[in-house]
Amino acid sequence: MEAVVSLKALERAWEQAREGVVLHAEERVTYLNPEAARLLGVARERVLGRPLLLALRDHRLERLCREGGQARLELRGRHLWAKAAPGVLLLLDRTGEQQRLEALEESSRVLAHEFRTPVTGMLSLIEALQQGLEPSQQAEVLGLLLQEAQRLRRLVEDLPLTRVPGQERTFALEELRPRLERFLAPQLAERGARIAWKTPHTVWASPDAVYQALLNLLDNALKYGPGGEVVVESTQDARGVWLEVRDRGSPLPDYEPLFQPGKRGYHAASVQGSGLGLALVRRLAAGWGGHAYGRAWEGGNAFGLQFPYDRG
């Protein structure tokens, strides 16, 4: 009697478990709990008593059941940890953990990319001071060092990685304008450039992610473009909202390769950089279900972001 009660209690625990449980004998399914059915994408009533492969639908899992051991694998869009013992297969959904690891890796890349330019500049100025300069030159270099230090401080204050990530909501694109203009003010002054804003639309996304993507696009336009006016304009059609940064540089021969990590256009040959900026922009856009792109327009080059209506 005690054994029967214990078995029922164990089955109740399995039914509520966050870990998938599959029991099998003679390569046929004898039990699977709701979480296992969810992870495997099957209906329990259709696979009980049927061949194991019919429930697992994956030869890697079937082999794991035969040989035992554990493995990490991607199955139908999910990252799973699987462990097999005689007659038992345990499944744990690690998709959230994998996404957090990818977000951490992305954050590290963003930090490295955004901090590289001011740090490189400061190191060059410090080396110049070490080599010995005239008093008037020392004052000029110290002033430049102060500017780079202030730029680093603005990065720390404005970089969205210092805020809570993933806060998606509907917001007006104009909301980003003051932060971007404040951050880019020294670069605009140095290049003798200005930003013309034509962004009357609202979008559904993380404001910090859009801020970072738009900052990278504006930074590229100011670095590699001819200066003068840079236009930020949003439009809308049946496919969603489109947000573009347009400069009046010579049209590029190809845009798609620039979104690959480490790839840079021929206009960038004399400008220091890692070639990560547009790759990060595309990764950020994918996070809200959109995409990033580049194209020629009648006045030069446009790099843009798309925000779909239906994210499903």
TrEMBL record:
Keywords: Kinase, Membrane, Phosphoprotein, Transferase, Transmembrane, Transmembrane helix
Pfam family, one: HisKA
EC number, as in UniProt: 2.7.13.3
Signal peptide: none
GO cellular component: plasma membrane
Boundaries of every PAS domain copy: 21-56
Domain Histidine kinase span(s) in chain numbering: 110-311
GO molecular function, one term: phosphorelay sensor kinase activity
Record GO biological process: regulation of DNA-templated transcription
Reaction(s) this enzyme catalyzes, per UniProt: ATP + protein L-histidine = ADP + protein N-phospho-L-histidine
PANTHER family from the UniProt entry: SENSOR HISTIDINE KINASE TRCS (PTHR45436:SF5), SENSOR HISTIDINE KINASE YKOH (PTHR45436)
Protein name: histidine kinase
Organism in which the protein naturally occurs: Calidithermus terrae
